Amino acid sequence: MTSPTPDALLGPADIRELAAALGVRPTKQRGQNFVIDANTVRRIVRTAGVRPDDVVVEVGPGLGSLTLALLEAADRVTAVEIDDVLAAALPATVAARMPERAERFALVHSDAMHITELPGPAPTALVANLPYNVAVPVLLHMLEHFPGIERTLVMVQAEVADRLAAPPGSKVYGVPSVKANWYAEVKRAGAIGRNVFWPAPNVDSGLVSLVRRTEPLKTSASRREVFAVVDAAFAQRRKTLRAALAGWAGSAAAAETALVAAGVSPQARGESLTVEEFARIAEHKEPGQQ
C-alpha cells in the first residue's frame, strides 16, 4: 500500500476553502457540522480499529475529512451522501488529495435510509459522523441491511451516545438502547469537543462503538416481533408492562400471561429489561394477536 502524503487530510483552512468554492453553507436541516481537525479524524479511525483489509462504509461524508482518514487505513471506502453538491464534489477531493487511493473509493449518492445494497465487496465496518437528527434510524437501518458489518463507530450527539450505550435500569435506557443491543455489544468510546467542528455545535458529541454479536440472539421470535414489544413497552414507559403491553397483547390479561410465561414481572417497567427478556416476551405472545 502506498503511503498517502502527510498533508492529505483536510485542515480548517482547507474545509473553509472547499466550502466556499462549492458555495456550501452547513445546514441545520441536515444536521451538518464538518470536522476540521485532522487529529480527530485519525483518532476516530484508530478507535474504530480500522484494519488494512476492511471495507468501510461511511454515511454522511460531507466535505471528506473522515473519508480521507479512512482511506489511509482501510482497503476501500464507500461513502453514502444525500447532498447533491457534496456528493458531486467528494470524488474530486479524494482524487486531488489522495490520488493513489482514489480507485479504492466509491460514492453512493443516496439517502442512507433507502440503501439496501452497496457496490463492490460487502462492508465489514461502518464509521461515520452521523447527523444528530437521523443518527439512530440510520444506524439501525445499516446494521439490519448489512450483516457483514462487524464493527461500527459512530460520532453522534452526546445525548444520543448515552442513550445508545445505556444499560437496563438507566434513566436514558430506551428503544435505541435495546434495538442497538439486538445487533451488537454497545459502549461509549470517548467524547469529542465542540471546537473540532465547523460550525461549532451547541451540543457535545460522543463516540459509540458497536461490535456485532458473533451469534444472533437465541430466540424463536423474529426481529420485527421483538421490536414490536420494545416499541410498545417504551411508548408508555411510566406504566407497568402489564398495562403498557395491553394493546400489543390484545388485553392487559393477555399481556400478564405472556409476561409470566417469559419469567418477567407484570409490574416491571420496560427500562429494567434486557433485550433477551424482550425476546422472551415476544415468544410468548398468544397466537392470533396482532
- Overall strand count: 9
Mean pLDDT over all positions: 94
Largest sheet: 7 strands, mixed
| C-alpha geometry | elongated
Q: Determine Rg (CA atoms, Å).
A: 21 Å
Number of helices: 12
N-to-C span: 55 Å
Unreliable stretches, pLDDT < 50, 5 or more residues? 1-5
| Largest sheet strand order | 4-3-2-5-6-9-7
Strand content: 15-25%
- Helicity range of the residues? 25-40%
- Taken in chain order, the helices and strands follow as HEHEHEHEEHEHHEEEHHHHH
* Secondary-structure class: alpha/beta
Structural notes for this entry:
By secondary structure, this protein is an alpha/beta fold. About 40% of the residues lie in helices and about 15% in strands. The protein is built from 12 helices and 9 strands. The strands form 2 sheets. It has a 7-stranded mixed sheet with strand order 4-3-2-5-6-9-7, with helices on both faces. Helix 2 (about 40-50) packs across helix 3. The longest helix is centred in the N-terminal third of the chain and has 14 residues, at about 85-95. The chain is elongated.
